[in-house]
Amino acid sequence: MTEMVYGALPAREREPVLPKWWQTLDKWTVTSILLLFGIGILLGMAASPPLAAKNGFEPFYYVKKQVIFGGAALVAMLITSMMSPRLVRRLAVLGFIITLVATALLPFLGTDYGKGAMRWYSLGFASVQPSEFLKPGFVVVAAWLMAANEEINGPPGRTWSFLLMVTIVVMLAMQPDFGQAALILFGWSVMYFVSGAPMVLIGGILLAIYPLAQFAYNNSEHFARRIDGFLDRSLDPTTQIGYATNAIREGGLFGVGVGEGQVKWSLPDAHTDFIISVAAEEYGLILVFCIIALYATIVLRSYFRLMRERDPFIRLAGTGLVAIFGVQAMINMGVAVRLLPSKGMTLPFVSYGGSSLIAGGIAVGMILAFTRSRPQGEIGDILRGHVR
Question: Could you give the CA distance from residue 118 to residue 121 in angstroms, rounded to a whole number?
């Protein structure tokens, strides 16, 4: 009837989805990720040819695979960043259940590729490390539980997240994969702290780390060997750590020159765990400082945006994901300069590795989705309201 009297109402023009998504995205984080990936390709061209020649492949075999895996990671990152936080949560819960089952079945169906740790599934043409995909799923699930704990008549989410964390840490330690277990524990602890956990309880958790580490040292030859190698004052120059630290020392401030580095011929993991040594030797500390600055940009920009977030789930999930991302980068570089014991952990978006690249793309996509600008008041408005 209204249309008969006044005529049809004009359709409202909606803003296109892609421009709107781009306007709400943190461009600094996206640019930093792209630069890290580009640096990874550059370093891969220097570090991987010796391994390719050893295995009978063409010189840039691993570089081509890294481009493929990295392309898939960037696509996964962009698609995930377009999702709403609710959709991210739903898919993360589903992914978490699948990867948790896959991790539990590793002792029966997995392989260690001769490295002494049952961490991978062999697919013939490639391998999958489920723990890489387990991390972002766990963070989102734990954040969901902790946020639900704050609701009226809500479930005991903090307790459930703690039990879930302990279960996963035990499963990873049995592989053994103490590096990923430490990341899970750290990420959960950061979220628990941000959610308002009492300092006494957090202190108790920190104190419990020592007896757990002592137990692992006494019952795991893999763990004890790495700790002994780290604590030994005499550094064997023929070990991976020895080669890595010598390469960093030889590189100096400006490096020995592109293609002139020697560490890539000695380190079997030069293109993965010790890629930062190749960067330091050939390009010097200048490139290393640039890499550190890019990681710092991602972490700080994400935290600044999360500080303005009013939704507790988004704030907790984003905080946990950023914490794990930043600490993983710190651990990888810390191992190379012998500040930390060897962990077998990749440098996000720089090291070669299909599982780590794609899982990292999903995790950063979640961070971008959680830090997108949304129509809401500042969280400070809530605090000022309570004060009044």
Answer: 9
